[in-house]
Design a protein that fits this description.
This protein is of the alpha/beta class. Helices cover 29% and strands 36% of the residues. The radius of gyration is 13 Å and the shape is flat.
Length: 77
């Protein structure tokens, strides 16, 4: 299951956009990873409906989000 989340919010000229990185746990099983990949679109749609922003959800490799992010990090770019 997800080990950490990181959101990256770059400012665009036409519309605000939110990018969410979901870091997979190093001990995720193949079944868990397949389930998360399958849910990626659902997560994106739900966030877009709730927040009213264009949302990009990306599953990322274990260790790619800095440890100091402490499970949730928001970067405004």
């Amino acid at each position: 299951m997800p080990q950490a989340l990181q959101t990256i919010d770059p400012v665009t000229t036409a519309r605000e956009r939110l990018e969410v990185h979901v870091e997979l746990s190093p001990d995720s099983t193949p079944d868990q990873m397949r389930r998360l990949i399958g849910m990626e679109g659902q997560i994106k749609d739900r966030l877009q409906q709730t927040l009213g922003l264009a949302v990009e959800v990306k599953l990322v490799e274990p260790g790619s989000i800095p440890a100091e992010a402490d499970r949730l990090q928001i970067l405004d770019r």
